[in-house]
């Protein structure tokens, strides 16, 4: 039995969607923490309708079986949900159970609560504390806090770290990495990397003018070269046309893929790795150790360079040099670099795979982009500037539309820090709430003509009556824990698209590809784009 609760619900409020500059209708309800709630099981809305607050146990969802709970559902062969296709699972749960779905009794982890209501997602985000808890990566928590406690000590970084230690670290690094001035300094270096990448693409064309079957790995190399320039202050040499499989860059890419792409398996299937060193866990640790070694090597080299540098103004310093100059302990820069490299390769690479595939299969839209680029860059060889990037309005809208329709990160989430009423159910603290943006970003209720690929919906002057709920599609998350690399991710994507599509056309003349989740949601198959001179 649960106690009786009584509270007021705010009425619907119509408001302009700030993100899309289009109007969105949103309703908000008040949070009800167990301590502040008056007793009762009735919820009175401002329009005086009465609704009952239902217990957590009544939330619909797949039924758990004894001993194996719901874990069996994600097991190979016997499970009904394929863990490698979490996007499909997200759609299936919504179709079968509605806007709130509970996956309970998962062995070794808290319940997962899938929430498909943008207003309620907004509520959870807006009510989060100054130390939001993103439920992710217990394997990384074990690695940083247990296996390599000797290295990390009390400095865990930001990824997989929570509470005060997270806040302290994030406060130290957030200002430099999110400052527009810092990001602008990297336009030229990122453009240099991208020019090298395009030369490489031209050299890679086969007799049909197509990219090789492992072109996605080439995109990973471009992404690593960019992030290496930002987080390690070095050019790692990924653009070398003859990189052997055991080269340092390829080993970093493989390690990042391994660390991220096995997370779902380690977290959702029976967590044997918690109790004894499984093969998966042993390889995970070896990969993470490799990251520690690489980051230590390059950050100490950057520190040595800085010692011999005559600096007149802080503005002359790179991102890493700023952190090294302001923090006594070089481990802060090393652990920061490790977090950025760990999550900054696969995310952006898969986003780029998806965006290029969408452009290559939407020739009309690609022409619009080319026309815009011709206007902003009449001379294709003139260097990019912040002002020119600002003027690429259609380019940015196209990227947002890909993120909305094919959400690269299929969802985000928060562990509730307090009991909360969600869609009329009393959800206890500790439950992990999942926001499946891959589904909410495609719901007609929140996005007009959601099924239509329409980049203009993101352009104020062109969106007409289209509305976008501001919490239906949040590619970089929201609030104090929002993506730390978002400014660099946007910059890298913009530079790449501007450089390719100003001078070349991409086509994809093969069977359409399905989307699938590895760690990110991206086209599943060979990206053999045909590259044609303009
Ligand atoms: C298109 C590419 C990317 C997407 C879609 C993306 C998306 C996200 C999302 C959804 C989160 C969780 C935010 C939240 O909990 O509210 C996140 C966190 C994070 N991202 Fe990104 N990201 C991308 C690229 C990058 C890159 C390139 C870097 C590094 C340079 C990066 C670094 C981080 C870090 C460090 C966090 C953890 C922040 C924290 O917990 O305090 N991301 N990202």
TrEMBL record:
Keyword set includes Heme: yes
Entry-linked InterPro entries: CYP11_CYP27_families, Cyt_P450, Cyt_P450_E_grp-I, Cyt_P450_sf
Name of protein: Cytochrome P450 301a1, mitochondrial
Cofactors named for this entry: heme
A single GO molecular function term of this UniProt record: heme binding
Keywords: Heme, Iron, Metal-binding, Monooxygenase, Oxidoreductase
Binding site for heme: 483
Family: Belongs to the cytochrome P450 family.
A Pfam family this chain is assigned to: p450
Source organism of the structure: Acanthoscelides obtectus (Bean weevil)
């Amino acid at each position: 039995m649960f106690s009786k609760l009584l509270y007021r619900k705010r009425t619907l409020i119509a408001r302009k969607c700030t993100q899309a500059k289009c109007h969105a209708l949103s309703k908000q309800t008040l949070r009800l923490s167990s301590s502040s709630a008056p007793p009762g099981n009735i919820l009175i809305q401002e329009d005086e309708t009465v609704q009952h607050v239902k217990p957590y146990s009544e939330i619909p969802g797949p039924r758990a079986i004894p001993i194996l709970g719901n874990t069996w559902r994600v097991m190979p062969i016997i499970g009904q949900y394929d863990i490698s296709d979490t996007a499909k699972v997200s759609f299936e749960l919504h179709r079968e159970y509605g806007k709130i779905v509970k996956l309970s009794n998962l062995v070794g982890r808290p319940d997962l609560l899938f929430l498909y209501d943008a207003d309620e997602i907004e509520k959870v985000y807006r009510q989060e504390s100054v130390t939001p808890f993103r439920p992710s990566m217990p394997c990384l928590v074990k690695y940083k806090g247990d296996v390599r406690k000797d290295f990390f000590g009390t400095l865990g970084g930001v990824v997989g770290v929570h509470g005060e230690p997270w806040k302290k670290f994030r406060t130290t690094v957030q200002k430099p990495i999110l400052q527009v001035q810092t990001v602008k300094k990297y336009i030229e270096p990122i453009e240099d990397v991208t020019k090298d990448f395009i030369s490489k693409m031209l050299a890679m064309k086969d007799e049909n003018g197509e990219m090789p079957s492992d072109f996605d790995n080439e995109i990973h190399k471009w992404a690593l070269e960019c992030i290496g320039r930002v987080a390690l202050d070095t050019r790692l040499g990924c653009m070398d046309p003859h990189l052997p499989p055991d080269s340092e860059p390829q080993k970093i890419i493989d390690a990042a893929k391994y660390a991220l792409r096995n997370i779902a398996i380690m977290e959702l299937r029976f967590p044997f790795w918690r109790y004894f060193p499984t093969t998966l866990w042993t390889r995970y640790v070896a990969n993470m150790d490799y990251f520690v070694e690489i980051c230590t090597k390059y950050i100490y080299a950057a520190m040595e360079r800085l010692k011999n540098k005559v600096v007149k103004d802080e503005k002359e310093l790179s991102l890493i040099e700023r952190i090294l100059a302001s923090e006594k302990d070089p481990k802060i820069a090393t652990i920061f670099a490790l977090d950025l490299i760990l999550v900054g390769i696969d995310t952006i690479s898969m986003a780029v795979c998806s965006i290029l595939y969408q452009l290559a299969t939407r020739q009309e839209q690609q022409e619009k982009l080319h026309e815009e680029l011709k206007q902003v860059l009449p001379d294709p060889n003139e260097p990019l500037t912040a002002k020119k990037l600002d003027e690429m309005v259609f380019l940015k809208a196209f990227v947002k539309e890909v993120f909305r329709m094919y959400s690269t990160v299929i969802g985000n989430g928060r562990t509730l820090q307090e009991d909360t009423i969600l869609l009329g159910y009393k959800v206890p603290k500790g439950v992990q709430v999942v926001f499946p943006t891959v589904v909410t970003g495609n719901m007609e209720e929140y996005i007009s003509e959601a099924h239509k690929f329409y980049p203009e919906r993101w352009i104020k002057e062109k969106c007409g009556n289209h509305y976008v709920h501001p919490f239906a599609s949040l590619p970089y998350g929201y609030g104090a824990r929002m993506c730390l690399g978002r400014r660099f991710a946007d910059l890298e994507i913009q530079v790449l698209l501007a450089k390719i599509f100003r001078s070349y056309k991409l086509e994809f003349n093969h069977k359409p590809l399905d989307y699938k989740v590895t760690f990110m949601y991206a086209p599943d198959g060979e990206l053999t784009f045909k590259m044609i001179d303009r």
